Amino acid sequence: MRGRRGTARGRARAGHGRTTATGRLVVVTLASVAVMGLGGGPPGRQALAAGTAGGAYAFAEGAQTVDGAASTADAVRLEAGRTYRSTLPGNGKVHYRLELDATSNTYVSATAVPPAGRTVSATDGVKVSVQDGDGRSCDADTTSFGAAGSPHPVAAWAVREISPRRSLCKEAGTYYVTVERVDRGGGGSSPGPWELELTAVSEPALERTGATSAPEEWDSAPPRPVTGTPERRAGGAGFARATPVGEGVWRDDVRPGQTLFYKVPVDWGRQLHVTAELGSSRTDGSVYVPAALDLDLYNPARGHVADVGVGYDGDQKSEDLAPLPPVAYANRHDARGQIGAMRFAGSYYLVAHLAAEVADHFGDGPVPLTLRVGLSGAAQDGPGYAGEAVPPDVFAVTEEDREAAAEGAAAGDDTAMRALAVGGIGSGSALLVGLGVWTLAARRRAVP
């Protein structure tokens, strides 16, 4: 069982159109045409602000809503490659079902989203576990809100892994995912349900057996922070809407209680370095919030890797994520959670949350946030999978990913927006022509 990421957080210095009865066209706007013809705008962008504030988490577009069962006998099946929405009660567990083969590794992650205005304790959070049909534990993980005790989205993961180090959970069959609160009904957290976002991803077996132990040596020296002029890059409002960034210095503003999501493509053999910095503000520096900013790193399966807290007194403050090894398949053989989580290439997520308490001392205005992202080491070939991951490319870095990180748009967004523009104009033109013909015909019918 993997424990919660304790040390780093614990030491946080830390017009629509209308017509008359006679058929005369009064007004049709292009905006209304787009709404009527294309469902209201770009997917997932409707009325969606950057970042999450007050619980406004951006769930994945098209996520299927499912109910967690009180008993495993009634558990709904989760399929790899899909994203789901559900609810976590204030007390008790909820169960879901997996149907697995005897060769693939399956990772399940649950992102807990407390409602706006709720209180949470530092020890509360979410726990995810995977069990076999006999109730034996395959894996479990917990993630808590940490020292600040500020409500924000947090994610935990669990795995059914085919490994020579594990004697259980290797057979094909039915497995169960259990999600629960970490500190149910205690520690000052508000009662009531939280929303959940669930994901499941599948990793195929290797073509050839690889190393059975973790790399013994890697450069763990703190790197020199990345320098340069910061580039504005607004954070996203959820994992599915994380803003791509690459190596460089990235700047945004974050308000108390807000959470920003970024993703960094990290290839096999590359080592990720991150520094979080809060900029100075107009204060006298007499108040210090020890856990003002929480920066979490999650891997491509939304498994927690590491975190760091940044304290704040109005002067600029910065902290580094703990040194992490280069991405390698064999890292999974290390018992230490931070190293074991760096087991595959893909998009690694940076989740920055500014504690609500900051507003009590510095006001509810935004605080400057800078992320210094470094990547060292040469990219390497992957481990040689015998099949394809589900979803495809989740454990790889594509050219589209690199372009998105350089440009600041999610992979495929430019294409989607171009298609939207063309489709909107085309649909709008067709609708306007049709309405014009219909109006002319109505007028002719009205003439004696």
Automatic annotation (TrEMBL):
Keywords: Membrane, Transmembrane, Transmembrane helix. It comes from Streptomyces griseomycini. The chain crosses the membrane at residues 21-40, 419-441. This is Type II secretory pathway pseudopilin PulG. Residues 205-239 are annotated as: Disordered. It comes from the Bacteria.
